[in-house]
């Protein structure tokens, strides 16, 4: 069985993983895109949006590759609200999402699976984080499962002790408000330690393991 990893998760220096007022116009909340400035110039991101070129970045490369399944929170699939962004909404990424593997969406609103191009199938799980992880592990086999966000989803899996490795990209940005990743979470008591720290111009990469 593979490991459960949260990789490439960007946070501000004051601990926010998304800005306030998330919406269709502001998927990451107001100011949220500033957290991703380290990722946007990379070859990995540019290939995700159908563009060539970009910088080489090992943290960006490992953020999406080698996973047998993904788990995402509800808002990582569509904008906040119960209408899924409208009757034709199939996610933020268009017809060919970058996951290329079965992707399990945590939600309270049931929906039939959606088969996309490139190997991605969105499955909507209403049974909670344990049910989603059981399904993802069964699907992934020997490959790893990625907890892809957002903040609430990562927090739930951290508190459940289910994440084996957490890679944070700490961006030199102050958001002040939004969704705080670690509020009320004692990482030390949960068994996490810092395994690697790599400073770069646009982010400091920190890998936590347990």
UniProtKB/TrEMBL annotation:
One of its GO terms (biological process) is riboflavin biosynthetic process. It comes from the Bacteria. It holds the Pfam family RibD_C. Transmembrane segments: none annotated. GO terms for molecular function: 5-amino-6-(5-phosphoribosylamino)uracil reductase activity. Residues 9-190 form the Bacterial bifunctional deaminase-reductase C-terminal domain. SUPFAM superfamilies: Dihydrofolate reductase-like. InterPro entries: DHFR-like_dom_sf, RibDG_C, Riboflavin_Biosynth_HTPR. PANTHER family: BIFUNCTIONAL DEAMINASE-REDUCTASE DOMAIN PROTEIN, DIHYDROFOLATE REDUCTASE FAMILY PROTEIN (AFU_ORTHOLOGUE AFUA_8G06820). This is Deaminase reductase. It comes from Methylobacterium gnaphalii.
